[in-house]
Structure formats: C-alpha cells, structure tokens
Amino acid sequence: MKTFRRFLTFATPLRHYLPEYIIYTIIGVVFGLVNFVMLIPILDSIFKQNNITVITPKPSFNWEDPVKYVSGTFDHYYTSYAANGSPLHALVFVCVIIGCITLVANIAKYMGTRTLIRMRMTVLERMRNALYKKLMGQSLSFYHTRQKGDILSVVTNDVQEVEWTIVNSIQILLRDPLVIIGTFIILFVMSAKLTLFTIVFFPISGFLVSYISKKLKQKGYFSQEMLGKILNVSEESLGAVRVIQGFNGQTFMQRKFEQVNRQFTKVSRALFNQRELASPISEILGIFIVVALIIYGGSLILGGDSELSGSKFIAYLGLYSQILQPAKNISSAITGLQKGLVAGERIFKVLDEPEMIVEKPNAQSIDSFQSDIHYNNISFKYEQSNVLHNIDLKIEKGKMVALVGRSGSGKSTMADLLPRFYDVTEGKITIDGKDVRDLKLHDLRDLMGTVSQEAILFNDSIFNNIAFGQPDAKPGDVINAAKIANAHEFIHQMEQGYETNIGDRGMKLSGGQRQRLTIARAIFKNPPILILDEATSALDTESEKLVQEALENLMKSRTTIVIAHRLSTIQYADEIIVLEKGEIVERGTHDELLAKQGTYKKLVEMQEFK
Ligand SMILES: Nc1ncnc2c1ncn2[C@@H]1O[C@H](COP(=O)(O)OP(=O)(O)OP(=O)(O)O)[C@@H](O)[C@H]1O
C-alpha cells in the first residue's frame, strides 16, 4: 500500500485532470446504463404490440426529480408513437434514442480515456526522468555494486510494468466501481428483493481474488529479477562479441543465457497462469449468480409474486450482466496491481538510494583556480581496507605532477578523489585552501578536464562529441580544439566532416582517433586543471606520436596530474610521486629519483627491459 500511495504522489501534480475524467466517466456510465433500461420499451413494443392506446401526458420540468422528468418525457413520446402510429414507430423511436445515447456514452468514454492517457504518460515520463536524474547523480561506487542490466531493467521494464499494471488498475478502479454502483442503484430500483439476493455472492469472489493476488506478489519479484539477469547477460555479451567469438565462447555464453532465460520463462509462466486465474474465477462466479438469479427471479415471476414484468426481468438480467465485466476488471486489476507494485518497489528502491556524493546546502562557488591543490594527509577505502594511506601532496598552479607505481598501487583512485567521484575517508583535499566537499559540485568539476585511458565517446556527431554538453558551441572553437588535438586532419577527410556520426562508443574510429577526440574535448572545455590517465600505451608509434603531441599541446599552461604508465613520457614532470600499496614511497624529479636508486629506478629498469 505504501508503494501505491507513493506512486500516487507522482500523479498528485496532475490531479487537476481528475474532475475532467470523473465527469466524462459519469456521463459514459450513466448513458451506458440507460441503454440497458431501453430494453424494457423495446421488449414491450415487440411483445405487447397493440396494448398501448393511452398517451401519457408530458411532465413539466422539476429540478427536484429530473429523472422523473426525463422518463416521463420519454414515455410521452413513446406512447404517442405507439398510439398514433404503430408499435414499429415506437420501436424505431426507441432505437434512435439508443443510437444517440450510445454515441454520447462512447464519446464520453473516449474523452475520459484520453484524459487518463495524458495523465498516465506524464506520470511515467516524470518517473523515468526522476530515475535518470538519480542515476546520473550517483557516485561511481553505486555502480560498482550493481550490474548495468539490473539498472536498465528498472528504467525500462519496471516502468513499463508500472504502466501496464498500476496505471491500468487506477484507471479501472476509478471507473468500474462507478459502473457497479450505478448499475446496483438501477437494479435496486427495479427489484430490491432480487438485488439483495445477489449481493450475498460478492464477498465470496472478493475473498478468492485477494487470496490469488497475495500469492502473485512473491512471484512478481522473482520474475522482475530474472528479467534483470537476462538484460545483464545480453548487455555484457553485446559489449564483448569480439571476445566471445575470438575465444569460441558462443556455446558457453548461449548456455548461460538459456539458463537465465529458462528460469525467467518458468517463473513468468507460473505468474501469468495465476494472474489469469482471477478472470475466469470471477466469470464463473458471475455466471453462477446469473443462473441463480434466473431460477429465483423466474420462480417469483412465474408464481406471480414479483413486481417485475417479463420484459423488465430480461432487462434486469441484461443490466446485471453488465456488472460482470467491471467486476472481472476489478479483480484482474487487484491481482495485476501486485505485479505492478513489485516493479514500483524496485523503482523506489533506486530512487531512495542515498547519494554518497552530495553538495552541501551552503556550498561555495568557485570559478577559477589560483594557487594550489592540496591532498592534505588523506586516506581512502572502497570497502574494508584502505587503498590510500596518509597521502600528503601539494600541487602548485601550472605544475605537472606524475603519479607512478605498479598496477593497483592507487594512482587512478587518487585522481578520482579530486573531482569527487569518491570522497576521502580521512583528511581533506583542498583547492586554493577550500575543502572540495565545501564547493559546488558543478563548479568544482568545471575546473577540471579528464582524458582517460579508455576513450569514452557518445553515439553522436564528432562536433557534439568535442563540444560535449554545449549544443551552442561555436564551430570555430570546436575546429580549433580539434586542430590542437591533431584531430582536424582526419575529421576533415571524412565525408561529412564534423557532422560524421562516430557510432556506438566511437566504434567507427581507430583507437588513436578516438583518443584524439577525447583530447579535443578536453581542450575545448579549456579547464585550468587536467587529469590525464596516460592514454598512449595501446597505440601504434604513429598514432602515439600524434596523441602525445596533442597531449603536450593540451598540458601547456595548465596544472596537470598525469597517471603515467610509460615512464618515458613523464621525464619532464615537475614532480613524480611513486606510489606503492597506497602510500607515497618516493617523490622528486626524474633525475632525483633515478639517483635514489629506489623503487622508481626499478620501475624504469623494468620498462627498459621490456
Ligand atoms: N571499485 C572498487 N572497489 C573496491 N576496490 C577497488 C575498486 N577500484 C579499485 N579498487 C582497489 O583499489 C586499489 C587501487 O586501485 P587503482 O585503480 O587506484 O590502482 P592503479 O594504480 O590506478 O592501477 P592501474 O595502474 O592498474 O590502473 C586496488 O587494489 C584495487 O583493487
């Protein structure tokens, strides 16, 4: 229920649609029911052919009883047609009225549904936007503990499920009880005795439906989880087709996929079987009630013991059958709702996930970098144990500092702390003396540009990739950035130049070209601080030269932190920091460190040996 109520809060801003919907629904329901009441004069015209000779007088309008006025007017015209013409005239008159009523009822129903569609789509749009915003604001550690497929499953399947179940159910629960109540009122007016007789059966069906729906919820969870797993395997495989084929892993991956797919199918089958049970159960119960009604009502009429005539009784049965569909809808909606609530809970779980990196309410602005960055005695851990211990490092404006060390020594982690992808566990990092945790996140990240080892690009044009996030960028600035990054030439040679779409993750480009685009992106951003996860190791000599040159252009007159894998490229760094198991073990210039004959020297020798 809590999830349902929370879901309604998403719809709350749209509650102004509700009166409109209710008005349309009432019109639709009332006119729909009146159509059934019309059965009575139809049957009368057919079966009582010549009986009508007296024309009933036309009533005058009375606000206190408009129903009487409408039915009186109808009777007046009906009897006039029957008495002055023939029963056929009366029949045609009734049919024309039925046609008009049907038209109004259906237009109202359609307008009501349109109103609800507007509401429904807007609610789902808001929900997806909220999810995306939440996901983009989450720290990287959020993504370490989750698989992409699961997250994608929430954004797509769970939202879809909510649409089909919760929203559909709301639609049904808003409309169909009205139909049932309206029908019952008319039924009571027609025959209180018969109607009371049928009401006894309703609690029985209610009990059965709630029993089924409880069982469904558990299965619903499982099914959505399995769907997430299918997405995980698919997503992973799509990103690794090259490896799967190269290592002849198709059969292995196929089995893995088939296994989760089989589990999903099994759970879903059971789930759907059970869900579908709700509808036949209520139909069977409904028919039982109608049969009981025919026997009971029939015996009353045949015994001359009823206020109903034969034609009224048939109309009564017709009207009664109108309750069955909405009752079936309500029971399906209640059972369907369980599956939707499961999906809703999964959505809210993501939305409620606490954000690890938050901006303080009174965060300060910073629009320039003036003097230094200081890693002030910091320690950091991802999980249990520290991966960085007591790091103290000051980087003056305009200097280039290189981080070196064996794989896993903590270089990337150190760089990730500066733009607050993670927060330090102990100590603090300051920029111009201000703790990064006290600054506005947007401002802080605006001061930095990152070029990482993995060239991360978007499935978009080259222009938009360089001017990422700035759709109003001037072409001249983008071209300039590309020129400095040694990328202009290859872009220029492409048929569509800067408008060329580079495909998923830049697949249509070579490794060196991709890397130069990421450098152009950093140049375009023109940040005072650069973080370079040295990116040239995977390139051939020619590309490496171009990329290295591009990097040197980029570093000019900026403060740079370089994560160096190739020591030859950082010889001219102002300071080299040697990390080992998360601690600074040596620091100094290239020459100073070589002279120390320590870890750095060993690292250099290892690379020369290679
Ligand atoms: N998300 C994470 N969760 C837990 N531990 C992590 C995570 N990321 C990295 N680590 C651990 O932190 C340590 C430092 O990793 P880091 O990536 O900073 O090293 P690195 O020096 O940059 O390595 P490389 O040169 O191979 O990129 C490693 O022991 C690694 O196993």
From TrEMBL:
Protein name: ATP-binding cassette, subfamily B, MsbA
Coiled coil: none
Pfam families, per database record: ABC_membrane, ABC_tran
Alphabetical UniProt keywords: ATP-binding, Membrane, Nucleotide-binding, Transmembrane, Transmembrane helix
Gene Ontology CC terms: plasma membrane
InterPro entries per UniProt: AAA+_ATPase, ABC1_TM_dom, ABC1_TM_sf, ABC_transporter-like_ATP-bd, ABC_transporter-like_CS, P-loop_NTPase, Type_1_exporter
SUPFAM superfamilies listed in its UniProt record: ABC transporter transmembrane region, P-loop containing nucleoside triphosphate hydrolases
GO function terms (MF aspect): ABC-type oligopeptide transporter activity; ATP binding; ATP hydrolysis activity
Membrane topology: Multi-pass membrane protein
Record field: transmembrane: 21-43, 88-111, 172-190, 196-213, 284-304
Subcellular location: Cell membrane
Source species, domain of life: Bacteria
Lineage, uppermost ranks: Bacteria, Pseudomonadati, Bacteroidota, Chitinophagia, Chitinophagales
Source organism: Chitinophaga skermanii
The ABC transporter domain, residue ranges: 373-606
Domain named ABC transmembrane type-1: residues: 22-339
